[in-house]
């Protein structure tokens, strides 16, 4: 699954630089995660880094983007190939 930042976000700016896929960006009111880029850090880390640093615990799994670990790894491989291609 991709992750989702809820409206409990306080815009503390700590999650964005931690994302290895550049999936986090400022939205209209608070940070947002692009589910097409979010791999839950699969391929990079054992745990999602944004969740590790979030002081308000406002980053749950995105209910509309259900993905297996294999699908997340495939997305990671596509994203890294595009960066290096």
From TrEMBL:
Molecular function GO terms recorded: 4 iron, 4 sulfur cluster binding; metal ion binding
Keyword tags: 4Fe-4S, Electron transport, Iron, Iron-sulfur, Metal-binding, Repeat, Transport
A cellular-component GO term for this protein: cytoplasm
Chain ranges of the 4Fe-4S ferredoxin-type domain: 1-29, 31-64
InterPro entries attached to this UniProt entry: 4Fe4S_Fe-S-bd, 4Fe4S_Fe_S_CS, PSI_iron-sulfur_center, YfhL-like
Superkingdom per UniProt: Bacteria
Keyword field contains Metal-binding: yes
UniProt keyword Cytoplasm, yes or no: no
Cross-referenced Pfam families: Fer4
Entry-linked Gene3D superfamilies: 3.30.70.20
Protein name per its UniProtKB record: Ferredoxin
Species the sequence originates in: Pararobbsia alpina
Organism phylogeny: Bacteria, Pseudomonadati, Pseudomonadota, Betaproteobacteria, Burkholderiales
């Amino acid at each position: 699954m991709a992750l989702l930042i809820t409206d409990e976000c306080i815009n503390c700016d700590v999650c964005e630089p931690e994302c290895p896929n550049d999936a986090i960006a400022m939205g209209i009111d608070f940070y947002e995660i692009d589910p097409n880029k979010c791999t839950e850090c699969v391929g990079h880390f054992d745990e999602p880094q944004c969740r590790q640093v979030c002081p308000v615990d406002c980053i749950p799994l995105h209910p509309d983007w259900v993905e297996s670990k294999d699908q997340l790894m495939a997305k990671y491989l596509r994203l890294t190939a595009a960066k290096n291609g």
